[in-house]
Amino acid sequence: MHLVFSYGTLQQTTIQLDLYGTTLEGITDQLKDYELLNHVVYGKYPAVRKALNQVVKGTVFNLTTQQLQITDQYEGEAYKRIMLQLNSGIKAWVYIEN
Fold first, then answer.
1. Which of 27, 32, 35, 53 has the fewest beta carbons under 10 Å from its own?
2. What sign for the dihedral angle of Cα 28, 98, 35, 31?
3. Class of residue 28 by CB neighbours under 10 A (exposed 0-12, middle 13-18, buried 19+)
4. Would you state the pLDDT for residue 97?
5. For the whole model, what pTM was predicted?
6. Which H or E element spans position 24?
7. Rounded to an integer, what distance in angstroms lies between the CA atom of residue 33 and that of residue 52?
8. Alpha-carbon radius of gyration of the chain
9. Is 56 left (phi over 0), alpha (psi -120 to 50) or beta?
10. In sequence order, what E strands does the chain have?
11. pLDDT over 70 for what percent of the chain?
């Protein structure tokens, strides 16, 4: 299983159903020292970037390897996946602007 921190569209049940055929249960968490930027990827989607003393709120989902591969395809070339530590102490994959 793979922990993924979502701050954007992956939190939407319609997107989850389209991608995985099911909805996901997650827990809320925060990403410290990053800020949320809206409409930066293709002028439509959010991204995060390093910013001291800022916090991004989101949801942590536990994905299977297959779901993680689907997510990688969904995020595409515009994002890259990196491992970051969240405020809770959990380490999770986060998609940041490529």
1. 53
2. positive
3. exposed
4. 87
5. 0.94
6. none
7. 4
8. 13
9. beta
10. 2-6, 26-41, 45-63, 79-85, 91-97
11. 100
